[in-house]
Design goal:
Oligomer: heterodimer
Helix content of chain A: under 10%
Largest sheet of chain B: 7 strands, mixed
Number of helices of chain A: 0
Number of helices of chain B: 0
Structural class of chain B: mainly beta
Number of strands of chain A: 12
Strand content of chain B: over 45%
Chain lengths: ~110, ~120
């Protein structure tokens, strides 16, 4: 069975600090895709990034970066120089015909 | 391009009633999936429709049903509402079936259902 664990329930930082969100997953599949979504107070889930299982190259996109390590089944996500607008709940998800979501991490960025 | 739209945005019903929620996918997207979000259970998959056919179904009772029309718009119906059905119902669309693992699902703003 697919399982996604986000151990951090809440993270609070001051603006301009970096925030790293942890995600650990379980799957028996050799090919899979991992996602990060953001859910602001309005409720809509916003797609952030996608990573496939056969490409472990870590990337940076603007203030977002991610660290995918297949050996430890981890897919961590970092927001650099956080801003108040980054305050939201962040979800890690694994796709196996449906998205299996973690419980989410609430990020609060204080001015 | 317009995003996924859901109507209504808010709904209040009483136990025993039924409710129908609507979702219009992004233009060109043929797959629509529904998710339920509650504080206790988090985000849970309800079902996926692709080309007017239910492709996959989550672990929900038969009171939860859905359908998809030829224009890819989808509706979900919950009959005999229970207090525990109070939740945010999210619809997501993708170009093709989510069985294609690389497909990214794009979500709508959701419908908040309160059952009294």
């Amino acid at each position: 069975a697919q399982k996604v664990t986000q151990a951090q329930t809440e993270i609070s930082v001051v603006e301009k600090e970096d925030v790293t969100l942890d995600c650990v997953y379980e799957t028996r599949d050799t090919t899979y895709y991992l996602f990060w979504y953001k859910q602001p107070p309005s409720g809509e889930l916003v797609f952030l990034i996608r990573r496939n299982s056969f490409d472990e190259q870590n990337e940076i996109s603007g203030r977002y970066s991610w660290n995918f390590q297949k050996s430890t089944s981890s897919f961590n996500f970092t927001i650099t120089a956080s801003q108040v607008v980054d305050s939201a709940v962040y979800f890690c998800a694994l796709n196996d015909y449906k998205l299996s979501f973690g419980a989410g991490t609430t990020v609060t960025v204080r001015a | 391009k317009a995003g996924v739209t859901q109507t209504p945005r808010y709904l209040i019903k009483t136990r025993g009633q039924q409710v129908t929620l609507s979702c219009s996918p992004i233009s060109g997207h043929r797959s629509v999936s529904w998710y339920q979000q509650t504080p206790g259970q988090g985000l849970q998959f309800l079902f996926e429709y692709f080309s007017e056919t239910q492709r996959n179904k989550g672990n929900f009772p038969g009171r939860f049903s859905g359908r998809q029309f030829s224009n890819s718009r989808s509706e979900m119906n919950v009959s005999t509402l229970e207090l525990g059905d109070s939740a945010l119902y999210l619809c997501a669309s993708s170009l093709t079936t989510t069985g294609a693992l690389q497909e990214t699902q794009y979500f709508g703003p959701g419908t908040r259902l309160l059952v009294l």
